[in-house]
Amino acid sequence: MSKNVTPYKESNRGKKEQVTEMFDTISENYDGLNRVISFGIDVKWRKKVVKLVGDTNPKSVLDIATGTADLAINLVKTGAERIVGLDISPGMLEVGKQKIKKKELHDKIEMVLGDGEKLPFEDNSFDAITVAFGVRNFENLEQGLQEIYRVLKPKGIFVVLETAVPTKTPYKQFYRLYSGRILPVIGKLFSKDNAAYGYLSESAAAFPFGENFNNILRKIGFIDVKDKPQTFGVASIYTATK
Ligand SMILES: C[S@@+](CC[C@H](N)C(=O)[O-])C[C@H]1O[C@@H](n2cnc3c(N)ncnc32)[C@H](O)[C@@H]1O
């Protein structure tokens, strides 16, 4: 389970602290690196998430692990009156806030420093909740999902975009080569943090994807759980309701 995969193997600190430090360290390079390591396809995946959320005409949307706010910014297109981006890393949030300011969206998107596993919101607060490439970083996945369930309104939509592992030949062999050998080298070249891109591929390999993740969502209480594999299975979009 992803719980035991941490960025800094020699450290005794908990996963949450290590993850926060790692994202603070890479925050300035994060957007550029994201485009490079996913060949720009992550932009297309986030658009699909926005479409799924937009189709439900939400009034309020919470984007957890919002990072540099790419998804939160795109969620403005849903027409929601209230968009909140929450993240545990002050560095990532700061980069996101600057982007929001540049786009003059600061009166539409609120950026909150907080922990996705202990949400600072009342029960049944949001019509829609999204998490893109975030749940894999939770220290306690089920606790985080329970919190999401708690603050989602009944009939609200929950959409998760997360890495997955291709299961079909030849994609699985190519993916193994890419994530095991190429990704860490790209990470080292572009990032100040050598551990970071080792962690990204290791945590992706350890994360329960597809039906395994669907079953965890069902266990928490979500209904209408579906997963839609993306781009040869390197990522998945999960939808669920309460
Ligand atoms: C890979 S980035 C994804 C950022 C953004 N959602 C995107 O699509 O680009 C993962 C983010 O999760 C955040 N994160 C990790 N654990 C968290 C937690 N427990 N609560 C809130 N955010 C968390 C990190 O700080 C980081 O910004």
Automatic annotation (TrEMBL):
Pfam families: Ubie_methyltran. One of its GO terms (molecular function) is demethylmenaquinone methyltransferase activity. One of its GO terms (biological process) is menaquinone biosynthetic process. It is an enzyme of class 2 (transferase). S-adenosyl-L-methionine binds at residues 68, 87, 115-116. Keywords: Menaquinone biosynthesis, Methyltransferase, S-adenosyl-L-methionine, Transferase. Its EC number is 2.1.1.163. It catalyses: a 2-demethylmenaquinol + S-adenosyl-L-methionine = a menaquinol + S-adenosyl-L-homocysteine + H(+). Pathway: Quinol/quinone metabolism; menaquinone biosynthesis; menaquinol from 1,4-dihydroxy-2-naphthoate: step 2/2. Belongs to the class I-like SAM-binding methyltransferase superfamily. MenG/UbiE family. Methyltransferase required for the conversion of demethylmenaquinol (DMKH2) to menaquinol (MKH2). This is Demethylmenaquinone methyltransferase. The gene is menG.
